[in-house]
Each structure stands twice: as structure tokens, then as C-alpha cells.
Amino acid sequence: MMYDDRDPIIVVRRFKKVKGKGGHGNGAWKVAFADFTLSLMAVFLVLWVVSMSTADEQKEISKYFQDPGGFFDESGSPDPITLGGYTKGGNSRMDVMMNGTVQNEEQSSLWVIFQDLQDVGLSAVMDEFQGNLELEYLPQGVRIVILEDDDHAMFERGRTHLTPYFEDLMLNLSPYLGRTKRSISIIGHSDATHFSQSSDSDNWDLSSARANEARRVMVYGGFPESRIMQISAMADKVPLDPDFPQSSKNRRVEIMVLTKESEKLIDGLLASNRERSRSAGLRKEELKAIREEADMNRLDTSG
After folding, report:
1. CA nearest 248: which of 130, 152, 143?
2. How far is it, in rounded angstroms, from Cα 248 to Cα 150?
3. Which range marks the domain in which residue 166 is found?
4. Which CATH number does the domain housing residue 191 bear?
5. Angle between helices 203-220 and 164-179 (to 10 degrees)
6. DSSP 38-95
7. What pLDDT is attached to residue 89?
8. pTM of structure
9. Residue 144 lies in a domain
10. What is the DSSP letter of 198?
11. What is the mean pLDDT of the chain?
């Protein structure tokens, strides 16, 4: 066989690259996808914040989106001391939102107590005293209503001492409420049955004495007396059964497990009363001193 001494022919094929049509080799889609995921995360973050916000906070958030530039708009100079500017009075929007966050934490803590009262704390009590206990979750705290039924009277009519059945109920309830570390308020109620005209007492006296009797039993059962912030009497002014004012449901005792805000409100009110009492005491002492001085300087007109 004869071989050709000529060099072999090498064929080189060249392909022209067209920009923008590189398929998966182009990284532009990654940037677009990253922008999309970031926007999606921002949307979910806003939705989560809104779902966890109170009604007041949601109003503040809506105001921000209506006028984003006005959210941080504060009149006056940035340095009010040296440049003579001034700051606006009242709470800023950011302060309102921060206070709302604190209130949310407080309400969450109270909700845990409410759920625990339902599921654990009162389980034994509720089983034994079914129909005589009601729980209600309120912005001011958790209200525990202890009320009579047709089979069990809390107090004998016109009397202030708890019957043994309800005394046992209060003694069972006291240790758990003591472990919540919360302060309480006790409110006494009566029905609309009026006392005889010859009696010196009325439903105000009766409901007050019943609330105080509940306090006495709770302290005996282990609840710290220092955390009882208030004893109130409502007489027959807030009936549970307004259609039947003499109904046994209206003869009840309510225990309010207070929020921190409610504690501050009651304490502030009592502190104001203490200040007024102290001022009144000082005025009486000053008046007494003025009278004594006037008596010493009185002219003798007997001669």
C-alpha cells in the first residue's frame, strides 16, 4: 500500500458567541432571583410584624406607609440646647410602638397565666366546684368569678361568713394564685334584696364584708397579704343577671389577677390619696398653731 507523504489536513470549526443568549452560563438570573427572594422576605416580615401588633401599633404602621417622610419629621433644630430649637411634647410614634411592644409582652405573660389557670391551676378545683367558677381574660387582667348556684350558697342570706363549700374552694384556689407572683383585687357583690328599715346595714356593707371575708380566707390559704392591692364593694350595682336582681348569680365574689399596668394605676391612685391626706394633715397642724397663737395674743377685755 502506498502512503501519501503530504501533511494531514486539520479542520478547525469556530463558533461565534452571541451575548445574552448564553443560557445557564449567564449569572444575571441569579441577581434577579436574589432580589425576588429579598422582596418576598420583606413582605413576610411586614406581615409577621402586623400580625403581632396591637390595634394602636397597626394605626402607626399605616400612618408610616401613608407618609413615610413624615414619620421622622420633627420641627426644630437637631441641637435644641445650643441652637435654640425645641422638641415636641408628648410621646413620639417610636415611643408609642415601643410601649406597645412592652404591653404585648405583658399581655402574653398574662395569657399564659390564663391558660394555666384553665388547664392546670384550676383543674382540680374546677372538677370539684364545676359551675361555681368562671374565668374571663380582660385587658386589665384575668377575672375569676366565684358565684353561687341552686345547690350551693356562698353566704347565708344577710350573712358575711363563707359557707364550708366555698371556703374549701377559696382555700384550693389560694396557693396557685400565690405562685403567679401577681397582685390581685377582690370585689364583693350582692343581690338586690333590701335590708329592713330597722337595720343599720345595707348591701354596700354586706358586699364589702363578703369581699373582706374572701381576703381573710385567701390569706389563710397561703396567698401573700402584701399582694392584695384592693378590696372593693359593688353592692347590687353590677348584677350578672339583671333580669332577676334577686338571683343567686348576683351574690358573688370576683378576683382580678392584675396586669402590671393595672397595679401601677391602682398604686398611683392610692399614692395620690396618701399625698392629699398628708397635705390635709399639715394644714390641720398649721391651723392649730395659728389658733393657739391667736389665743395667746387675744386682748383682755374683762377689765
Report:
1. 152
2. 7
3. 103-265
4. 3.30.1330.60
5. 60
6. HHHHHHHHHHHHHHTS-HHHHHHHHHHHH-GGGGG---S-S-TTTS-----SS--HHH
7. 45
8. 0.55
9. yes
10. T
11. 74
